[in-house]
Design a protein that fits this description.
The complex is a heterodimer of chains A (281) and B (184).
Chain A: E1 3-6, H1 7-23, H2 27-39, H3 43-62, E2 72-80, E3 83-86, H4 90-104, E4 128-134, E5 139-146, H5 148-151, E6 155-159, H6 164-179, E7 187-195, H7 197-207, H8 219-233, E8 248-258, E9 263-270, E10 277-280
Parallel strand pairs in A: 1-3, 2-4, 7-8
Antiparallel strand pairs in A: 2-5, 5-10, 6-9, 7-9
Helix pairs in contact in A: 1-4, 2-3, 6-8
Chain B: E1 2-7, H1 11-15, E2 22-31, H2 34-45, E3 58-60, H3 88-93, E4 98-101, H4 107-115, E5 119-122, H5 128-132, E6 135-142, E7 151-165, H6 172-180
Parallel strand pairs in B: 1-2, 2-3, 3-4, 4-5
Antiparallel strand pairs in B: 2-7, 5-7, 6-7
Chain lengths: 281, 184
Amino acid sequence: MIRTIDVKEITKNIKEMCIKANYVLSSDMNAAMKSAEKKEKSPLGKQILGQLQENLKIAEEEMIPICQDTGMAVVFLEIGQDVHLQGGILEDAVNEGVRQGYVEGFLRKSVVKDPLIRKNTNDNTPAVIHTKIGKGNKVKIKVAPKGFGSENMSRVFMLKPAEGIEGVKKAILTTVKDAGPNACPPMVIGVGIGGTFEKCALMAKEALTREVGNHSEIPYVRELEEEMLMKINNLGIGPGGLGGTTTALAVNILTYPTHIAGLPVGINICCHVNRHVIREL
Amino acid sequence: MEKYITSPIEKDCVKDLKAGDYVYITGIIYTARDAAHQRMYDTLQKKGVLPVDWRGQIIYYMGPSPAREGRPIGSAGPTTASRMDKYTPQLLDMGLGAMIGKGKRNQEVIEAIIRNHSVYFAAIGGAGALLSKCITNSEVVAYDDLGTEAIRKLTVENFPVIVVIDSEGNNLYETIVKEYCTSL
């Protein structure tokens, strides 16, 4: 049955989600940090993990953003094909939500209008919007503000099929090693394997929105996630890059069919402030 | 080792700071990040005068989130220092005392740190709410039009940092990671 949704609803929700994401970290991330603190072998690393939890507490209680880099707003929309949107243009509605959220929520405006002329838009718009049309009559929204300390350390590798799974492992480890202290560890690593050049990067980004602690349903991918998390934590980078056994909290991998000639791998690094809020309208 | 210092800093004090020391800073520090550095660089290219005399001062690579009413500042954690590497040796040669950021520095910066007996501190990345509690005052002193990227004069009290690169060029990021690395 066709359902009509006013785009004002989208604006209102995006606004609230931008604010929530930047002040309250989802419980999966908080739990992962707590358990990491118990296992961390470096005393300084342990201390930093404790401070990061204290930071989360202050952020929520005193309404100070968790991190001053409140990100560029990445918005995933899954729109059921039985939804009819009315009252305005969808893209404008999303950007209006981001504008209201960042201005009224005391969030930093970190977006420049042109990548080379670099003048701030002063309201953090536009968002980066990814829209998918699916079944049903609902709209699923994911808001994931992305900080650039870690974004800058992300990579895409166009591997040869002959490099296989070992090539993928090497690509992930190289990326994390190069990121080191720059990406604000402990990190969350989103990986997309397969598809095309842009598809693997998009999967890597979307993988970051999966709850930490949940694994792929594909057995070999799950094993790869677990093996890579262990290997990354053996690198010694540690919390803040100041040494230790907690370099990453999770490795989330998505896969997709690909071309006979290719093995694309996208690796999107996120810091410990892996923000994502999900709602369904 | 835990140490307490005041800012602006004296060269004698820098000598005693060793990679790995946990340091609390009290006094005045200045923020500057990408756009402010670019503007200072352009000014120096044109033989102009910088808005701040950097001798003995500490630059904190940071762009805060907006302050709520009645508060000095919003969230205020460090940004990645390597983006400022292009501009840093020149500022160090002009007497800049120290820098606070996060992440690696390039070889030119490390050499300039040794040459000028300076020091590079790291603050904890992503702990902007916690760090903001150590900032008691903030005022824009230059480049107001740059918004969050303006140069701000901050008053800090026991602001916590860790010495990453000391005046002899010892680099904590390299030495400590080896201690915990169990794969090669």
